[in-house]
Design goal:
The protein is α/β, with parallel strands linked by helices and 204 residues long. It has six helices and nine strands; from the N terminus they run ααβαβαββαβββαββ. β8 and β9 form a beta hairpin.
């Protein structure tokens, strides 16, 4: 955890979120995958790698009340808490490497935009899949987004693993069935566009 933590701490300590390539004031692609799901407002949601993301803000506005945000970089979490002010008290903040996460309770929705594609070893990919399966209730959902085959090969100085929609779904097919799969283009603050693969999965 230490090496990964130090890398991402350095990123969040040295850059403003608005300058990061993954910045979105409104996480439109994630919400497009989440909105059709039959979730109750009290259902528990985990945003993996949520750091400084605005997804928690958007979910609160939609009336969801049981939201957890997990990130390996404590600085990212602290910046979100400061930005959200009193609203931050409604969120459970978790500092952890997702491959080592042990949930205290199961979640109805697991969301990950651009964490999974940083995991490139068999051990890390397997650990992620096991954590995801153990964290989501039977009949619950996961929304996972990665760079697609048309997307970047590196991000924040790290090589990533690209996934087609089919490859992404296959990573989790033992425990999840595919409900939806879409490709999106994310416009970065620098003006380029990054191609993403997103899958919505249902826990078997």
């Amino acid at each position: 955890m230490t090496e990964r933590r130090n890398h991402w701490e350095g990123i969040y300590q040295s850059k403003e979120f608005e300058a990061c390539s993954w910045y979105q004031e409104v996480p439109t692609h994630s919400l497009e995958m989440i909105d059709p799901l039959p979730l109750a407002k009290t259902h528990s949601i985990l945003d993996v790698g949520g750091g400084e993301s605005y997804l928690a803000d958007s979910l609160l506005k939609k009336g969801f009340s049981t939201i957890s945000v997990l990130d390996i970089a404590p600085t990212a979490l602290e910046k979100s808490k400061k930005r959200m002010g009193k609203q931050a008290e409604q969120i459970t903040w978790i500092h952890q490497d997702i491959t080592q996460f042990v949930p205290k309770h199961a979640f109805h929705l697991w969301h990950d935009r651009a964490v999974f594609h940083f995991l490139r070893t068999t051990e890390d990919i397997s650990a992620y899949g096991n954590v995801m399966a153990s964290s989501v209730v039977s009949g619950g959902y996961a929304v996972v987004g990665t760079f697609s085959k048309k997307g970047p090969l590196r991000c924040s100085g790290i090589d990533i693993q690209q996934y087609s929609l089919e490859e992404l779904a296959q990573c989790f097919e033992t425990n999840f069935e595919v409900l939806a799969a879409k490709e999106f283009l994310h416009p970065t603050p620098a003006g380029s566009k990054q191609a993403f693969s997103f899958c919505t999965l249902k826990r078997k």
